[in-house]
UniProtKB/TrEMBL annotation:
Domain of life the protein comes from: Bacteria
Lineage of source species: Bacteria, Bacillati, Bacillota, Clostridia, Lachnospirales
Keywords: Membrane, Transmembrane, Transmembrane helix
Transmembrane segments: 48-65, 72-91, 97-115, 122-143, 163-188, 231-247, 267-293
Protein name in the entry: YibE/F-like protein
InterPro entries, A to Z: YibE_F (IPR012507)
Keyword Transmembrane helix among UniProt keywords: yes
Keyword Zinc-finger: no
């Protein structure tokens, strides 16, 4: 048993060093790119600011978040690469919707499992995210075609008049992909917040029924819903304050503003994100209550033997084993094999 503990500790230590070196390598690569670009005439120095901000973010996340802060920054790098790859594939005339859905699945997996590990609450958040995304896809697909918000607005014609518009990309599918990508972050955040809270309720009251656990999840979610919706709203206002002022300088009436393509597309995006945040609440509460209670029944039926405990410790490196701990409680808390 002691050898297993030492092996788990060494593996975790190697994992932390690997993530730290990857993050530092990424920041160093940004500096190399900026240095090479700075040698060219006419290149702005804006990337210096990006590198400094990224370095400050990494240091703060490392100091405040410790290991999880490093994991979060590491997942941020991977998600950036996923989005960049998706954009490159779409630019090569692949189906934007298919590429976006695959990218969202990868982003969900990386964002959840890299930071939280293989835990029942993580599985619950992941499956809730995918189910919500599947339900919203058909609604967004219909809205994308019915609202006719694809392409460029009239206000942008002067800026793009010198460029060719024959780029071989379906703009309707592109706006659908944009809306899907804009809501994935919000529903992931809501899902893991709900499942983590419900997991804490379950750990403090293992005898709770599935219905009571579901109701507790809904009660917790009401507070999350209000703050998340406001976060989405103020993110829109802050990001498009210049757009609103520009439309006002054009002396547009209120009716013209809310019917303009450039404004309407952003409003639809923020409403779809809010709809996703609302819809994922009962889905996450239901899936989390099912997985946690099923995990408890599985652990009890499995006999809680020492062999099973040793297997769980090997498959879940975040679990610290103590011979004096109650094996029944440990089997309930951790485990990768979810029926």
């Amino acid at each position: 048993m002691k050898q297993n503990h030492r092996k788990i500790f060494n593996n975790r230590k190697k994992g932390r060093r690997s993530r730290d070196s990857t993050c530092i390598t990424f920041l160093f690569s940004l500096w190399i790119i900026q240095f090479s670009l700075a040698q060219q005439p006419g290149v702005s120095k804006q990337m210096n600011v990006i590198i400094i901000l990224a370095l400050i973010l990494f240091i703060l996340m490392k100091l405040i978040g410790k290991e999880k802060g490093t994991k979060a920054f590491f997942s941020l790098i991977i998600n950036f690469l996923i989005i960049f790859t998706a954009i490159m594939l779409i630019a090569h005339n692949l189906n934007p919707i298919t590429i976006t859905i695959l990218a969202c699945i990868l982003i969900s997996y990386v964002s959840l499992f890299t930071i939280n590990g293989k835990h029942p609450k993580t599985y619950a958040a992941f499956w809730s995210t995918l189910l919500t995304l599947a339900v919203l896809f058909f609604f967004i697909y219909f809205i994308g075609y019915a609202a006719r918000i694809q392409g460029f607005s009239e206000e942008e014609f002067e800026e793009i008049s010198l460029y060719s518009l024959y780029i071989g990309t379906n703009f309707t599918k592109l706006i659908i992909s944009t809306i899907i990508m804009s809501l994935i972050g919000a529903i992931i955040d809501t899902a893991i917040s709900i499942s983590s809270s419900m997991n804490e309720v379950f750990l403090h009251n293992p005898s709770i029924t599935r219905r009571k656990l579901f109701e507790s999840g809904l009660n917790i979610s009401r507070d999350i819903l209000g703050t998340t919706t406001n976060t989405l709203y103020f993110a829109f206002v802050g990001g498009y304050m210049a757009l609103i002022l520009w439309l006002k300088d054009l002396h547009y009436s209120f009716g013209t503003i809310i019917n303009s393509k450039v404004f309407c597309s952003e409003i639809i995006s923020i409403l779809c994100s809010s709809l996703g945040v609302t819809l994922i609440i009962p889905i996450t509460a239901g899936i989390t209550s099912y997985i946690l209670l099923s995990k408890k029944q599985y652990a009890v039926a499995d006999g809680n033997s020492s062999e099973n405990l040793e297997h769980l410790s090997d498959s879940s490196p975040d679990l610290a084993i103590d011979s004096n701990l109650d094996t029944n409680k440990i089997d309930i808390i951790k485990g990768d094999d979810i029926p």
